[in-house]
Amino acid sequence: MKIKSEQRSSISIEDDSSSTNEKNTVIISKINDGMKVGPFIRNHFSHLIVSKAQSHLACKQGQVLVNGKVAKDFTVLHTGDIVKVTRKMEETLKYKEGFKVDIRYEDDELAVVWKPSGTTLNNQLSNTLEIALKYNLKNSNANDKLENPKCVSLLDKATSGFVIAAKTESSYNTLMEDLKSNRIIQTYMGIVHGRIDGNENEKQVITSVLDNEECSTEYIISKLSKTRNGSGYITTVLITPKKGYNKFQPRKHMIELGHPIIGNTRYTKQIANSKDKGLYLTLTSLHFIHPKIQKEMNFQSPEPSKFNAIRVKEEKFWKRKQEEELLLFEKAVADSSNLSNDGKALIDFINNDQRPTPYIIGEKDFFGSQFYVNENCLIPRKATEILVKATIELKPKRVLDLGTGSGCILLSCLKNLKDAKGVGIDISDEILELANRNKNRILGERKDDAKFIKGDFSSLVNNELLHSSFSSETNKITYFDVIVCNPPYLTDREIKSFSKSIQYEPQLALLGGGEKGIECYEQISEAIQKCLDKNLIFDRHKTNYLIFEIPSNKGKLVIENCFNYLKLIDIKNDENNLKRCLVYELPPDKNIIK
Fold first, then answer.
1. What is the pLDDT of residues 487-518, one digit of tens each?
2. Do 187 and 201 form a contact (C-beta atoms < 8 A)?
3. Fold of the domain built from segment(s) 17-95
4. How far apart are CA 452 and CA 432, in angstroms?
């Protein structure tokens, strides 16, 4: 239902005319002296006269009077002239160009029409669907026909989709009762931020109280797409309210899931590069029982073209970002010293001094401090010190260390950051006990600045102790400025190719998982995405950072397959001039929903 309207001339109507007590009547002031009737009424009576053709028609039909006489479109106005427009709103709507309704079904009882976005259902404004229906639908022959059709729908102005228009009183009452009781099945298609948990085509349900009413919504993942924005993904989802009568139920429930619908209206979140494209939510499927003939009525509509357009656009931006980062990495590798390929792949993981001797003596030097070690933890390596240096450079106040082991990375950072606090996470109770021993040894009086919490990579979003670790208030979330991690990244084949000493170290801390050894990176990437969707881990009003150790032969794999929602800002070398550390940045989210 597109409304055509001419471009208004830049005429000021402030104090241009004096209104009289009579409706739609004005007195011409000096500012509009010499103006023709047509341009004047199009500007001053724009609610009734919407175009040049309409001003000409109104004059021709005698609906424009100047000093009590019928005026022509070209009549010149003078100061003191009294202009009156007698046209009624219904006539304006009847002749509005393009004010056509897309009718999908119609009989004596009802019609099913398509409502475009930007159109209200029923209020006092001129651009409403119900007023347009009056002039687009056939008259009903039923005894209880309505004077004007009534919409049976919860669609707001921004949402497009199917609308039932009742033409009789009995049908309206029945359909409204069906709508409130969820017997009218309405399925929306939307595109949301992030990657929704679950498999494609799997039915899932969210239930919560919305505006003092328990509401349930079924949602099905239709398509997952890459994006360089936010968490790295956008998800096309089918949303069907199952219980509840709430206009914004689909949007509110998606927010509760941590995946707001893309849009620039209420209960949505904008996406960069598409801020002017409106709401990505439409009612594409409608099912109900005809109130008169008791027949099942089914209506389906394909997704709007802009849905696929945004997916293609975001995928393009994501690929461009990935290509830029791969070029950066390849350039960095090309600039490294002339080592053999095998040496570049593995040179530092087992240095000549990296024997199990630390297990025998129970200590290992790392970043200038002596750490307790045992067979439950990975022996700290010299190459890993670059992660500490990279973290210290950022001067964070809060640091999160994933897979903390002996705690050597986190504690070395805190020792050199006097005002910082941090949390280390590990899955093993024995490891956490060892890390706490090191905390007392390394930090001394500042030992309370570090906490070690049990947890694994995949369950970050559900780790309540983590999210409240440094919060004094009950419901306040602890945010971190930097996440640092040295995840497992070796394969079975690689471990067997090393000296036997490495086989004394815990396999859980060595094996990265999968054929290529980067499964842990993928798990961390997905876990952080989930936290971002729930506004956890990072304060999205600030710039945040993630620092990861990589084996130099797998940097390209990590960049290609993980953390695509982050911006790679630096690649740092270790003491052997090998690419050892990736530094990612997560810029502030200006559209974060508070």
1. 988 777 666 655 555 666 776 666 666 777 88
2. no
3. 3.10.290
4. 6
